[in-house]
Amino acid sequence: MTTGHVFIATSVDGFVARKDHTLDWLAKKPGVEGEDGGFANFMDSVDGLIMGSGSFRTLLGFEQWVYTKPVIVLSSSLTGADIPKHLQTKVRLSRSSPKALMQELDQEGWKRAYVDGGKIVQSFLREGLISDLTITSVPILIGEGIPLFGTVEADIDLELMHSRQLATSMIQTTYRVV
Amino acid sequence: MTTGHVFIATSVDGFVARKDHTLDWLAKKPGVEGEDGGFANFMDSVDGLIMGSGSFRTLLGFEQWVYTKPVIVLSSSLTGADIPKHLQTKVRLSRSSPKALMQELDQEGWKRAYVDGGKIVQSFLREGLISDLTITSVPILIGEGIPLFGTVEADIDLELMHSRQLATSMIQTTYRVV
Question: What is the DSSP letter of A159?
Answer without folding.
Answer: E
